[in-house]
From TrEMBL:
InterPro entries: Cyt_c/ubiquinol_Oxase_su3, Cyt_c_oxase_su3_dom, Cyt_c_oxidase-like_su3, Cyt_c_oxidase_su3-like_sf, Cyt_c_oxidase_su3_a-hlx. GO terms for biological process: aerobic electron transport chain. One of its GO terms (cellular component) is plasma membrane. The chain crosses the membrane at residues 12-32, 38-60, 81-101, 149-169, 181-201, 221-246, 266-284. Residues 1-285 form the Heme-copper oxidase subunit III family profile domain. It is found in: Cell membrane; Membrane. This is cytochrome-c oxidase. One of its GO terms (molecular function) is cytochrome-c oxidase activity. Belongs to the cytochrome c oxidase subunit 3 family. It comes from the Bacteria. Its EC number is 7.1.1.9.
Length: 285
């Protein structure tokens, strides 16, 4: 294979992934909009994990067989970099929506700015954020908002700590210190799954005690949109790191060949940075 570029055989996994992603998206949209379609959502979710397993299995087998060279390594790195860039744009759109609502839409409804005439729609509305009193009586706002200095702060500490432990594990892989890498990656997994448990507790409290739901006006919608999608990314990242942990135990990776681990680390650090933005702009400011 020296001096050549490995071209993999044709694969059915990409088209099947598109199909299960369609099931996932249609099922999620139907569940939220019409109250049915949850079964299709679950089928799509299971299908995504199955496709990830079989697709990654093939890539790992090709890598372990020595089929990849320096050019393939560069291709993987470029692909992962573009994937993370697309994820940055994904969250930038939601942060942009939050910014638009807070800086433009709410002041307009309160009579401020170039489109202050919008205040004629609900003359008694007074703009504030978080929006506990919605303009229309069709939607009731939450009773209160989540206290940022309890569960959200705990989750911030968990994710920041997980980035530190993952970095130490990554250095262990680069130095061929496998036991060190296993230990610190295991701690990373504990911190990551703890984050998800704490977020679940926060959601239950928000629904039952604070009245903060998807139907609680624009504040409830943006809160769950941003934190929910981030939680989904943490879940995916934790699953990928679990695979990396299993691969470490099976003797995979070396100081010269460990891009799978490195790519998972990039993704996890990206998720951590997004959470810092969420903590500041959704919970604190």
């Amino acid at each position: 294979m020296s001096g050549s570029y490995y071209v993999p055989a044709s694969s059915k996994w990409p088209i099947l992934m598109v199909v299960v992603l369609a099931f996932l998206a249609i099922g999620a949209a139907s569940s939220l909009s019409f109250g049915h379609g949850f079964g299709l959502f679950i089928a799509g979710l299971v299908g995504v994990f199955v496709m990830m397993f079989v697709w990654f299995r093939d890539v790992i087998h090709e890598s372990r067989s020595g089929l990849y060279d320096a050019q393939m390594d560069r291709s993987f790195r470029m692909g992962m970099a573009w994937f993370i860039f697309s994820e940055i744009m994904f969250f930038a759109a939601f942060f942009g929506a939050l910014f638009y609502i807070r800086v433009f839409a709410l002041p307009w409804l309160d009579g401020e700015g170039a489109k202050g005439i919008s205040a004629l729609l609900w003359p008694d509305f007074s703009a504030s954020w978080p929006l506990l009193k919605t303009p229309s009586d069709a939607f009731s706002g939450p009773v209160d908002v989540v206290d940022p200095w309890h569960l959200p702060l705990l989750n911030t500490l968990l994710l920041v700590s997980s980035s530190i432990t993952l970095t130490i594990a990554h250095h262990g892989v680069k130095k061929d210190q496998r036991n060190k890498a296993k230990l610190w990656l295991f701690l990373t997994l504990i911190l990551g799954f703890s984050f998800l448990i704490v977020q679940g507790i926060e959601y239950v409290e928000a629904y039952t005690r604070l009245g903060l739901t998807l139907q609680a006006g624009v504040y409830g919608g943006t809160f769950f949109l941003l934190t929910g999608f981030h939680g989904a990314h943490v879940t995916l990242g934790a699953c990928v790191l679990t695979v990396m942990f299993v691969r470490l135990w099976r003797g995979h990776f070396s100081p010269r060949s460990h891009f799978g681990f490195e790519a998972a680390s990039w993704y996890w650090h990206f998720v951590d940075v997004v959470w810092l933005g969420l903590f500041i702009f959704v919970y604190v400011v």
